[in-house]
Amino acid sequence: MLEGILRDSITKPAVKALRKDGYLIANIYGKGLENISAAFKRNEYIKYLKNKTTLAFDVKVDGKVLSVVVKEYQKDAITSELLHVDLMVAQKGVRASYFIPVAVTGSAKGLKNKGLLMLHTRRIPVKCTIENLPNNITLDVTNLDTGDNILLRDITLPADVDCYLDPRVPIVGVIKAK
């Protein structure tokens, strides 16, 4: 479980001091809950997120254990260092917006015909409860030839999971190399 500290001050000098000490600034929020200003050790946070297997994970802040989902993060434009993260509390029975990652399996036929595999959409926005949230959407691309795409309408989402994107949006495809 990832453990963090409660930030008592949200002023700019306090945030700079925490970042200098190796902390990642975080905001934790949820529907009907009071916002929590927290900080996590940056290296522990990155290591923990690389090894997690589900979208929702547990954090412990100020003695409270919360199940959260990464909603948004900010990186430094030059160094790509993680600066800030927004975590949303995954409440049971509450419909919320999530981003499901897309995973690709197989080797496309079009790659032998000098094509390039393009992942157009890395994450699909959906609205559902945390109980129905899939960890990822796996697509088999072995039958894709040059010029073929898998569109959003070709994917079957689990029950009670709604996607509000246009069904004609391409998710993955093989394009002709120049």
UniProtKB/TrEMBL annotation:
<comment type="function">
    <text>This is one of the proteins that binds to the 5S RNA in the ribosome where it forms part of the central protuberance.</text>
</comment>
<dbReference type="GO" id="GO:0003735">
    <property type="term" value="F:structural constituent of ribosome"/>
</dbReference>
<dbReference type="InterPro" id="IPR020057">
    <property type="entry name" value="Ribosomal_bL25_b-dom"/>
</dbReference>
<dbReference type="GO" id="GO:0006412">
    <property type="term" value="P:translation"/>
</dbReference>
<keyword id="KW-0689">Ribosomal protein</keyword>
<comment type="similarity">
    <text>Belongs to the bacterial ribosomal protein bL25 family. CTC subfamily.</text>
</comment>
<protein>
    <recommendedName>
        <fullName>Large ribosomal subunit protein bL25</fullName>
    </recommendedName>
</protein>
<dbReference type="InterPro" id="IPR020056">
    <property type="entry name" value="Rbsml_bL25/Gln-tRNA_synth_N"/>
</dbReference>
<keyword id="KW-0699">rRNA-binding</keyword>
<keyword id="KW-0694">RNA-binding</keyword>
<comment type="subunit">
    <text>Part of the 50S ribosomal subunit; part of the 5S rRNA/L5/L18/L25 subcomplex. Contacts the 5S rRNA. Binds to the 5S rRNA independently of L5 and L18.</text>
</comment>
<feature type="domain" description="Large ribosomal subunit protein bL25 L25">
    <location>
        <begin position="2"/>
        <end position="87"/>
    </location>
</feature>
<dbReference type="InterPro" id="IPR029751">
    <property type="entry name" value="Ribosomal_L25_dom"/>
</dbReference>
<dbReference type="GO" id="GO:0008097">
    <property type="term" value="F:5S rRNA binding"/>
</dbReference>
<keyword id="KW-0687">Ribonucleoprotein</keyword>
<dbReference type="Pfam" id="PF01386">
    <property type="entry name" value="Ribosomal_L25p"/>
</dbReference>
<dbReference type="InterPro" id="IPR001021">
    <property type="entry name" value="Ribosomal_bL25_long"/>
</dbReference>
<feature type="domain" description="Large ribosomal subunit protein bL25 beta">
    <location>
        <begin position="100"/>
        <end position="177"/>
    </location>
</feature>
<dbReference type="GO" id="GO:0022625">
    <property type="term" value="C:cytosolic large ribosomal subunit"/>
</dbReference>
<dbReference type="InterPro" id="IPR020930">
    <property type="entry name" value="Ribosomal_uL5_bac-type"/>
</dbReference>
<dbReference type="InterPro" id="IPR037121">
    <property type="entry name" value="Ribosomal_bL25_C"/>
</dbReference>
<dbReference type="Pfam" id="PF14693">
    <property type="entry name" value="Ribosomal_TL5_C"/>
</dbReference>
<dbReference type="InterPro" id="IPR011035">
    <property type="entry name" value="Ribosomal_bL25/Gln-tRNA_synth"/>
</dbReference>
